[in-house]
Amino acid sequence: MYTQMLRRSRFLALLLLLSPVIGLGAKRQTPVPRPLQTVPELSAGFDLLYEQKFAEAREAFANWESRNPEDPFGAVAVAASYLFESSTSKAY
Predict the structure, then answer these.
(1) Report field, pTM of the whole predicted structure over 0.70
(2) Which one-letter DSSP state was computed for residue 24?
(3) Which of 8, 65, 85, 88 has its CA 20 to 30 A from that of 74?
(4) What pLDDT shows up at residue 24?
């Protein structure tokens, strides 16, 4: 009786260990995200942030955002410019 329970528990443990492997053959149901692309206007804006030209960077981001209202990255870039400006203006 004890050996039979031990065999069953080993079998269940084996099934639990192999269950992730069994699912690898299934088709992927989630869509694959589009690849990252470099946007020259945004790249130039981040270069301006690096040079600590915050007003010019915000203007570049706002211009891009006005031409691409469906893309939320413009608003994120503008917010990042304020964050970078506030973090560099602190005296240590």
Answers:
(1) no
(2) G
(3) 88
(4) 54
